[in-house]
Specification:
- There is one protein chain.
- The chain is of the alpha+beta class.
- The protein has two helices and five strands.
Length: about 100
């Protein structure tokens, strides 16, 4: 029950972030164990799973150097921001022109 309340609160927080920052194309939270807490209501779970899988190896290797607090990946079509808060990672995707 406690996990459900926490997940609900986090989902609402992510929804409010997207309301305040409409340029965010995608946003979600995941735990170090890979459990995804989605902020998306439009069914972007599959994209979140692929993103976590891609980041997993990078984050695992970074642990030998003391871990990652944040990282920014800039691409031709936009930017992915990853920020760590305790055992959670917040991922936001912003299009290029945002």
């Amino acid at each position: 029950m406690e996990n459900d309340v926490c997940s609900f609160a986090l989902r609402n927080t992510l929804k409010e972030i997207t309301n305040a920052c409409p340029d965010i194309q995608s946003i979600f939270l995941f735990k170090e164990d890979g459990y995804i807490i989605s902020g998306e209501e439009n069914g972007q779970e599959e994209a979140a799973v692929h993103t976590v899988d891609a980041l997993d190896e990078v984050l695992e290797k970074a642990e030998t150097l003391g871990g990652i607090q944040s990282m920014i990946l800039e691409g031709a079509k936009g930017t992915v921001n990853v920020s760590r808060m305790n055992d959670f990672y917040l991922v936001t995707v912003v299009p290029e022109k945002a």
